Amino acid sequence: MITKLLIVADDFTGALDTGIQLAKQGVSTRVFLDAKAWELQEEAVVINTSSRHLSPGEAKKTVFETVKKAKDEGVAYFYKKTDSALRGNIAAEFEGMLEACRAARICFVPAYPALGRLTKNGVHYVDGVKVSESVYGSDPFEPVRESDISKLIQTRKTLSVAIKPPAAMPGGQERVLVYDCQTEQDLEQTAKLFKQSGETVFAGCAGFAAYIGSIVDFGIKKTCFPKLQEGLLVASASVNPVAITQLNYAETAGFSAVTLTAEQKTAENPGSIPGFSELVSSIKSDFAASGRILIRSVSHTESFIHPVGIDADLLRSRIADNMGALIAVLIKEIDTNFLIIGGDLLSSTLSRLNVNSVVPAAESSPGVVAFEAEISGKKRTIFSKSGGFGKMGEIIKTEQYIMEVNNGPE
C-alpha cells in the first residue's frame, strides 16, 4: 500500500484526533507513538514527534528528519498538525517541514469551529476570547502568550506571513499563508481552493484535517468498529480547568473518584510510589463495586501546587510517568473501557504497555477518539482526549456513547 499523506503531530492526543478525521472517512490510517520507530504501511500515516516540550531547535530537527525520510520514500502530501490553542513550537516546526519538503510555502488553517477555535484577521480565539487571554494563557506548564499568528510565526526570521480570507487562492512570495476561518463552510471552501491550486503542504489542527480527504485522492474502504466493554475508567493528569471541571462534574454524577497524593504523583520513579500495590487493589475494588471511576492528579484548579525544587518539565514528566505506570497496570488487570485525558499521560501509559502504533477507530464527540491497540496479544479499545477539549459533561457523554454502541445492532 502506498502512503499518500504524512501527518506530523507534536503530541499523541493531537496525533489521534487528527488521524481519526481520515479514519472516519474510510482511509487506512495508523498512528505511531514515536518518531524513531515508524513505517509507511497505510495510506495515511500519523507520527507523534513528542516535540511540544522540546527546544525550538530540537523540535525543528525532529520534524525535519521525520518529514525528509517520508519525502525521500515518495510521500506526496504533508500535514503539520498544530495545537488548536497554538501551544508548542509551531514556527520552528514549520521551518523544519518546509526545508524537508523543499516547498515554497505551507498553508496554515488553525481554526476548529466545532470546538470554538476561530481565526479572525490573523488572531486566534477560543470560545470568543483571544487564546492568550483564555484558560490556555494561564496554563501552569505551557501558557500561551501570543494570539496574533503572524507574530507567533515570525519569531523565525526565515518565515514571512500573509493572512488570507477563506476565498483567497494561494499565491505570493510568503512562506506561510494563514487562513482566517470561522465556520465549517470556510474550511470546506478553503480545501477546495487548495485542491485547485495543487497545494501539497498544509498545517492546522484536527478541524481542517477533516477536509484533507477532499484534497488527497485516497482509496476509500469501509471500516468496522468493534463492540466495547462494560464500564468506564477515566484517568487524567491534566491541570487544565476544562478537564478538572469535567472530572468534578462526573463525580457529582456518581463516578467514584481517586485523587493521587502529592507523594504518589511526584515520586522520583514509579517504583518508589508510596503504597502502589495497595492503591491498585483499592481502585480495582472500587471499580468492581461501581463500574465507573475517576483517577486524577488534582481535584480542583487551585489544588495544584508546584513543589519547591522541581522545575516544570521534570514535574510534568514525573506526574505522567507515575500515573502512566499505574494506568498501564490497571489496563492489564481490569477488562473495561478506559478514557485517558492528556497526551503526556497517554504516551507514558502506552509506552509501558509496549505499544508502538494504534489504529484510530471512532470519535464519540469532537476531540474524543477511540482507538485500537494490541496489548498483551489482545486488541483493546481505549478512548483519549486533550485536557482542554469538550464541554462540562464530556465524560458522561462518552459513557453514554459506550452504552449506545453496546446496545446497538450486532
What would you say this structure looks like, in words?
This protein has 410 residues and is of the alpha/beta class. The protein folds into two domains: 5-214, Rossmann fold, CATH 3.40.50; 232-406, Molybdenum Cofactor Biosythetic Enzyme, Chain A (3-Layer(aba) Sandwich). It is 34% helix and 22% strand. The protein contains twelve helices and 18 strands. The chain has a 15-stranded mixed beta sheet, with helices on both faces. The longest helix has 22 residues, at 312-333.
Descriptive keywords:
single chain; 410 residues; alpha/beta; Rossmann fold; Molybdenum Cofactor Biosythetic Enzyme, Chain A; 2 domains; 12 helices; 18 strands; 34% helix; globular
Query: Mean pLDDT across all residues, rounded?
Result: 93
How many strands, what sense, and barrel or not for the largest sheet?
15 strands, mixed
Distance between the termini: 30 Å
Coarse shape: globular
What fraction of residues sit in β-strands? 15-25%
Low-pLDDT ranges: none
- The second-level CATH architecture of the largest domain is 3-Layer(aba) Sandwich
The DSSP helix count reads 12
Oligomer status:
single chain
CATH class of the largest domain: Alpha Beta
Q: How much helix is in the residues?
A: 25-40%
Number of domains: 2
What are the secondary-structure elements, in order, as H or E?
EHEEHEHEEEEHEEHEHEHEHHEHEHEEEH
CATH fold label of the largest domain: Rossmann fold
Radius of gyration: 21 Å
The largest beta-sheet arranges its strands as 9-10-5-11-4-1-3-2-16-17-18-15-12-14-13
Structural class of the helix and strand makeup?
Answer: alpha/beta
Give the tally of β-strands.
Answer: 18
